[in-house]
Amino acid sequence: MNDRTRPKQGSTRAAASDVFATVATRALELEDIALALASSEEIEPMAQAFLPIAAGAVRSSEACLFVAEGEGSFRAVGHHGYSDEQIEAVEESPVEQAACAAAGEAEGPIARDAILADEAYQASRQEQELEEAEARPRFELYAPLRAQERLAAVLALGRRSDGADFSDEDVAFIEHVASSASLAVHRCILARQNADQLRLLRELARFGREITSTLDLNRVLQTVVNTTEAVIERDRASVALLEAGTLRIRAVSEKVTVEANEAEVLGLTEVLASLLRLKREFRVAADALEAGEEVPDRDVFARHFEEGEMQSLLALPLQDEEGLLGFLLLESRNPDGFADRSDTEFLSILGGMVSVAIRNADLYRRVPMVGFLGPIATSRRRWAAMSPGRRTALASAAAAAFVLLALVPWPRQVAGPAVVRPSELLSVTLASPGVVRQVYVRGGEPVVEGALVATVRNRDADALLASAEANVAIAERRAAEASARRDAAESKRWALAARDAAAELEYARSTEQDLRLTARVSGLVVTPRVEERVGEHLDQGDAICEIARLDPVHVDVRLGEGDIGPIREGARTRLKVLAYPERQFIGRVARVAPEGEAEPGKSATFLVSIECPNPRLELLSGMTGRAKIDAGSSPWLWNVLRPVVRALRMNFWF
User: Are 567 and 559 in contact (CB under 8 A)?
Assistant: First the structure.
């Protein structure tokens, strides 16, 4: 072997080193991809972790993961190299939907050029009348992800960042990655489906508890229509029951009462007639009618969708071994509201639960004395559903409440109608006859003790006063003259005369003082228009007005003879009058009438007089209200049963 044919040792080592580096890099990338695929049970975060690594391994700057939704529809669950707005446009693009569908039919990764040549893709393009530039898919390579021989998703990769085509090595690598990713995507889809099913089962269980918590038919129907939204999305729910051979709307969601013509109001009269003929589960949507699908009574449902806002309808028959009970109607404004038929099993369970609840409520309604036994049965069910600890706590609380009410004495009060009276009513009278000169008060005005009420003029008193004053002056002058003459006897005589005249003057002045009339107590002037008596002549003893003493006031309370027994003088009382309903006036019992007043055929009543302080004179004579009088203490239960026990003792004794 010559030097030309001998391989160069350096180049061989370099090639081996490149191969080793490539293999190591791929191994590390596969390890990172495996970690990303196992990073989450939710498909969205898993896709966001997986796509950058997968795209970077083949030097692609753009990637997207489309999950198959069924019937040729795909949903983007993760993206790399796009904004949220861009990926939304990509997801809604019919070109990308068709490209993913074409990739789903391929055995392995398929390039964009191969998709453009696909017959199904070309047919979709022609159907949408797209130009060649518009019909070009955005991504360079599409890899189907299959699990259990079913398409789970499509991995779409953009062009390499260096502008080169994907090599065979890149395609093989992506195919291997797709096989691993398909299992992870399938696992996430199953986890989500299981979670959805568990949620539905929990909602069904809660729904069952709600509708079986009562046996009142109307409440059952209201619960059904208002809680179905937790199990299936809808905009309106209603229950139509079979009555006398026709379906009648008995409950509508978000409505407390249902009118007799509710079916006509909702536009369901013809729909109910059609459902009664079908007697089976029925789904229909406005889009299906427009697409020309074969639907029984097509015109009836078409009119219903045209005249109302609802665009899809699901009717679940409510029936048991005894026959058809009615229909549960679910309506939606979304034309595809009930297109998913994967919930058939749950809907059949839902219909069965509703049928059982309605049948039980209907049978319970026919039970004799249901109005009396209903609350008892409901209480027993609630008691049985409680935990032992809660039952013990409630029993202890009930025992404590019984002891508190049946054994512990509570203050007892007796109440009766009350009328306010003045404690005194005094007249302002004249000590001697005269003419009213001036009045200083008005009817209804408050006065204090000693205040001037009026003045009265008496001519005899005036003359007596003038004469007395003159006699005093004369006697004093004569006594002074006698003293000046040094006539001791005469001076002494006139001095005695002056003293007698002074006594007469004092009497005359007291008589004038008596003609100034004053108030003897504090209170209110109760005589109306007293100021109009000016100039009127009054005799001795005549009253010019009356003053009512209102501090304190007396309150008359009428009590029946069944309540008068424990009332004692000095007992505390509370009074409320109509003029001050927000206030209480505190007083004491002043007197209990020794004799009652009875009308024929009725029990006697006794008058109890209460004395109540009234410093601000807020309580006026004649005010009415209600008073409560302390009557000792006794257990609350005895207070409640007292009338019954009294009646038994009075009517059954030997």
Answer: yes
